[in-house]
């Protein structure tokens, strides 16, 4: 693996991530863009095309190397993969994220180094009713 990772999550942290990675596509897609909301918490989420073979540990930044439509869906797919492959590390007040494509010579598909409390608050707010996309067909009946 390009970066030494050790899955370091206590039971509470593991349950927190599990709660968010099991969301349905409709729960994820019917929301305002996560990369816009992240700015409110001092987190930059960058979507880039191409491949990356070196871990980038830019603080307060998550980089996703996947240029496909549906950024919310892509973000949570990579977060789910990082969790499933035990590539999330909580160290002090930081949350370190890594996702690799194991079928493409472990090409890195996501890196991240963010303040853990801000990241948790970002995810909580992303799934709040206030962040529902008013243009979503599934939300037309909600007031």
Biggest β-sheet strands, sense, barrel: 5 strands, mixed
Overall form: globular
| Sequence of secondary-structure elements | HHHEEHEEEH
Biggest sheet strand order reads 1-2-5-4-3
Overall strand count? 5
Helix content: 25-40%
Global Rg:
15 Å
- Helix tally equals 5
**Uncertain regions spanning at least 5 consecutive residues:** 1-6, 137-143
Average residue-wise pLDDT: 83
* N/C terminus separation: 47 Å
DSSP strand (E) fraction?
A: 15-25%
Structural class: alpha+beta
Key features of this structure:
32% helix; 143 residues; disordered C terminus; five-stranded mixed β-sheet
What does this structure look like?
This protein has 143 residues and is an alpha+beta fold. The chain contains 5 helices and 5 strands. It has helices at 11-21, 25-29, 34-38, 71-84, 116-126; strands at 44-48, 61-65, 88-91, 94-101, 107-115. A 5-stranded mixed β-sheet has the order 1-2-5-4-3. Helix 1 packs antiparallel against helix 4. The termini are far apart. Mean pLDDT is 83; it is low at 1-6 and 137-143.
What order do the helices and strands come in, and which of them pair?
Elements (H helix, E strand, L loop, with lengths): L10 H11 L3 H5 L4 H5 L5 E5 L12 E5 L5 H14 L3 E4 L2 E8 L5 E9 H11 L17
Parallel strand pairs: 1-2
Antiparallel strand pairs: 2-5, 3-4, 4-5
Helix pairs in contact: 1-4
How would you briefly describe this protein structure?
The chain is an alpha+beta fold. It is 32% helix and 22% strand. A five-stranded mixed beta sheet has the order 1-2-5-4-3.
């Amino acid at each position: 693996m390009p970066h030494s990772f050790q899955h370091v999550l206590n039971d509470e942290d593991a349950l927190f991530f599990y709660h968010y990675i099991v969301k349905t596509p409709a729960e994820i897609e019917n929301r305002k863009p996560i990369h816009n909301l992240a700015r409110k918490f001092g987190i930059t989420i960058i979507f880039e095309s191409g491949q990356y073979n070196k871990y980038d540990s830019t603080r307060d930044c998550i980089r996703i190397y996947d240029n496909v439509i549906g950024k919310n869906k892509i973000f949570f797919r990579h977060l789910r993969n990082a969790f499933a492959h035990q590539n999330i590390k909580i160290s002090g007040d930081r949350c370190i994220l890594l996702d690799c494509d194991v079928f493409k010579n472990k090409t890195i598909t996501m890196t991240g180094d963010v303040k853990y409390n801000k990241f948790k608050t970002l995810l909580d707010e992303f799934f709040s009713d206030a962040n529902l996309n008013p243009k979503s067909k599934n939300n037309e009946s909600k007031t």
